[in-house]
Automatic annotation (TrEMBL):
InterPro entries named among the record's database cross-references: Murein_DD/LD_carboxypeptidase, NLP_P60_dom, Papain-like_cys_pep_sf
Domain NlpC/P60: 51-173
Keyword Lipid metabolism set for record: no
Coiled-coil residue spans: none
Key words of the record: Hydrolase, Protease, Signal, Thiol protease
Pfam families listed in its UniProt record: NLPC_P60 (PF00877)
Listed name of the protein: NlpC/P60 family protein
Signal sequence, renumbered to the chain: 1-21
Amino acid sequence: MIKKFLCSTLIALFVCSASFAQTKPKETKVEDPDNLASQYFSQVMGVAVDATSNLKLYKFIYEWIGTPYRYAGNTKKGIDCSAFAKAIYDKVFNTNILRNSRDIFSMVNPLSKDELKEGDLVFFKIKSKSISHIGVYLGDNRFAHASSTRGVVISNLNEPYYSRYFYKGGRIIEPGDKNFVEE
């Protein structure tokens, strides 16, 4: 219900922006719809979305917020953390990554928290000696993920729970990168 309201509000903002742009004199600067979307996502998602942010990433995440967690799931009826990360990389970054968080970690250059950039991956060892959880970093210590208790949400790496279990960040190794190994 709230999601539909927020989506309707975003659509209304775009419609108002478009009609406002049509009625203003030509010499007046028109509000950029991408800027409106950035402001909207900043407010709704609690993430500082700016002009350099990937709006496609935020739109994709917004469409999934609230989707329940389901182990091995990969649809809006239920999804797990690695399937969610895989879907983001497929649809937003046009990059195919593996399906499980431990395997995905083999595809990255490890990073510390302070090296993370928007779109990087974050890995956790939750009550385990091996990687057991993954999310996608958004900036400002926030990341999107499929939580086993809350479904698809945005969380903060500084929350005590995530801070305790954070393992490493990672950036996908691209072909041509010195660390890229073709299989």
